[in-house]
Specification:
alpha+beta, Glutaredoxin, 2 domains, four-stranded mixed β-sheet, 7 helices, globular, binds glutathione
Length: about 200
């Protein structure tokens, strides 16, 4: 299998951590620069985004949630608890963390537009949503063990992206439980090795 990634992509980071946690043989292929005209990923599908996964059967999967679920299934379920109710809690966390990643990504994109093209209303709305997500993660992850599953992978990748692109959010402030959990997660090699470089 080939996993197409780019250096600091928080979405690709989730698939990279998931592949390692699932113990699967996945070759990472650097697809940057993503802005290249006629990008080679367009040969495989319309999106040309990372992550993307070429399966051993030659199918080409896009979208982080789908790739993560596929890797989980292929590993025989290593990234979700076998208990159905516990699995629901992991999916709940994955959903909130995905929401946070989309929110931060959208907000960062907006902030990097020409000042005359930026929408302060969009930035304000997304910033408030991000704050609600940080609080929800503090509620769910403070005091929890540092383990890898679909939910915790999405959470730690979103927080790493916040460190890089939204340092001013200072998400650790007032969320000491979440900060301690994230510090413990950073001791896991798959998490530490994929932290964004900035
Ligand atoms: N909804 C997609 C988002 C992935 C995404 O936006 N990836 C960015 C890199 S962080 C990308 O490939 N951007 C290239 C582009 O916009 O052309 C997912 O969940 O995988």
């Amino acid at each position: 299998m080939k996993l197409f990634v780019s250096g600091n992509s928080p979405y690709a980071r989730r698939a990279r951590i998931a592949a390692r946690a699932a113990g699967l043989a996945v070759e990472e292929v650097d697809a940057s620069p993503l802005a290249a005209e006629n990008h080679f990923l367009l040969q495989h599908g319309p999106g040309a985004k990372v992550p993307a996964l070429e399966t051993d059967a030659g199918n080409f999967l896009c979208e982080t949630l789908i790739i993560s679920r596929y890797l989980n299934d292929l590993s025989g379920g290593k990234l979700l608890p076998s208990d159905a109710v516990a699995a629901e809690a992991v999916l709940e966390l994955e959903g909130i963390s995905s929401l946070l990643m989309d929110t931060l990504f959208h907000c960062s994109y907006e902030k990097r537009r020409e000042p005359s093209e930026q929408s302060p209303a969009v930035i304000e709305k997304e910033s408030l949503r991000a704050r609600r997500c940080y609080d929800a993660l503090e509620n769910r992850l403070a005091g929890q063990d540092a383990i890898l599953n679909l939910g915790t992978i999405a959470a730690i990748a979103s927080l790493g992206y916040a460190d890089w692109r939204h340092a001013a959010d200072d998400w650790r402030k007032g969320r000491e439980g979440l900060a301690a959990w994230a510090d413990a997660m950073m001791k896991i090699p798959a998490v530490a090795d994929t932290y964004p470089v900035f």
